[in-house]
Amino acid sequence: MADVGAILQGKVTGIMSFGAFVSMENGESGLVHISEISNNYISDISQLLSIGDVVKVKVLSVDEKGKLSLSIKQADPTSAVSPSSGGFNKKKNDKKPSNKEPLDPLEEMLKKFKQASEEKIHDLKRKEGKKGN
């Protein structure tokens, strides 16, 4: 069980409008609320985070069910950057397309479809896990 205040490394496994789910190497997972991602206002989390991104998180709290509340901006202030500065410091080498050039309508539609699909799959997996307990 992760201790409150611990700084851990994890991988983003899901993105919702209210935050990002992060899974740690020890098998635990938790939620980084949108307010704990950056010191700046964020309208769309997917502008900063993608599924598979490796991030540092600080454990803010652990509830009675063992759910972790996490923070990226408190774990490493240098990685909690604004959308205008190009996103997070990532360990993987892939680069996101620049937000300066608008996507064509088809690309935008596909991006939204992919995000909605990933969110639904994450919700289904979470519901399946609850049924098994």
Task: Give structural notes.
It is a single chain. The protein has 133 residues and is α+β, with helices and mostly antiparallel strands. It folds into two domains: 7-96, Beta Barrel (OB fold (Dihydrolipoamide Acetyltransferase, E2P)); 102-133. It is 21% helix and 26% strand. Strands 1-2-3-5-4 form a five-stranded mixed β-barrel. A hairpin with a 5-residue loop joins strand 4 and strand 5 (68-71). The radius of gyration is 15 Å and the shape is globular. It starts with 6 loop residues before the first strand and ends with a helix.
Shape field: globular
Q: Trace the largest sheet across and list its strands.
A: 1-2-3-5-4
Question: Tell me, what is the CATH class of the largest domain?
Answer: Mainly Beta
Count of runs of 4 or more consecutive helical residues:
1
Determine the mean pLDDT: 78
List keywords for this structure.
133 residues; alpha+beta; OB fold (Dihydrolipoamide Acetyltransferase, E2P); 26% strand
Topology overview:
Layout: E1 7-16, E2 19-24, E3 29-33, E4 54-62, E5 68-71, H1 105-132
